[in-house]
Automatic annotation (TrEMBL):
GO terms for cellular component: Golgi apparatus; membrane. The keyword Transferase applies. Keywords: Transferase. One of its GO terms (molecular function) is alpha-1,2-mannosyltransferase activity. SUPFAM superfamilies: Nucleotide-diphospho-sugar transferases. Belongs to the glycosyltransferase 15 family. Pfam families: Glyco_transf_15. This is Uncharacterized protein. GO terms for biological process: cell wall mannoprotein biosynthetic process; protein N-linked glycosylation; protein O-linked glycosylation.
Length: 191
């Protein structure tokens, strides 16, 4: 489905990063965008940048939102692309991987927000994932039929989740039942 639909990145949990581990990551990202402005997706209708940005009167800073990499599906073509490699190499030269512990989750998420269009990123709402104390469990009844997790532990709409601001940016990222069956039917196992 990812290849056929043109998805380059998929996720099912989005939370905020620990601020102490990313103190200079956004400044380094801004330097990257100054150096490689042609890589960014800046069209408001297609951009994910507002999802990772905290904009106020004083500054635009990284809000810490990231796709939790414990469950992610990424296109190797994306991670091997020149724009991604240039971003990664730029960050590597900045030294934050070593001095601040920049992790794969915020780096992948910021890269996706900068380099991918909204329609190239997919929310795997139908796949439950539990890594205590954080879990994603589908809350829709039609998805619960084949899921063995407790929707009460779902973090998606709780404080600290970044699914809420993602929904503000892309209100249809959670597929309704009709869309889910239409889009996934060719890929579901037949019993």
């Amino acid at each position: 489905m990812m290849k056929d639909r043109g998805f380059k990145y998929g996720w099912n949990i989005a939370i905020q990063e620990i601020p102490e581990t990313i103190q200079t990551l956004w400044a380094a990202t801004r330097r990257f965008l100054t150096r490689f402005p042609h890589y960014g997706v800046f069209d408001p209708a297609q951009s994910l940048l507002p999802w990772v940005m905290q904009v106020n009167a004083d500054s635009d800073d990284y809000n810490g939102c990231h796709f939790w990499s414990n469950f992610e599906i990424g296109s190797l073509a994306f991670f091997r692309s020149q724009p991604y490699l240039d971003f990664f190499n730029h960050l590597d030269q900045e030294g934050g991987f070593f001095y601040e512990r920049w992790g794969d989750a915020p780096v992948h998420s910021i890269a996706a927000a900068i380099l991918l269009k909204k329609d190239e990123v997919h929310f795997f709402n139908d796949i439950g994932y539990n890594h205590p104390p954080i879990a994603h469990c589908p809350t829709e009844s039609y998805l619960q039929e084949k899921c063995h997790c407790d929707p009460a532990i779902n973090i998606d709409w709780q404080d600290g989740s970044c699914a809420k601001p993602y929904k503000d940016l892309d209100p249809h990222f959670v597929w309704d039942e009709f869309t889910y069956y239409r889009e996934t039917n060719p890929y579901r196992l037949k019993s």
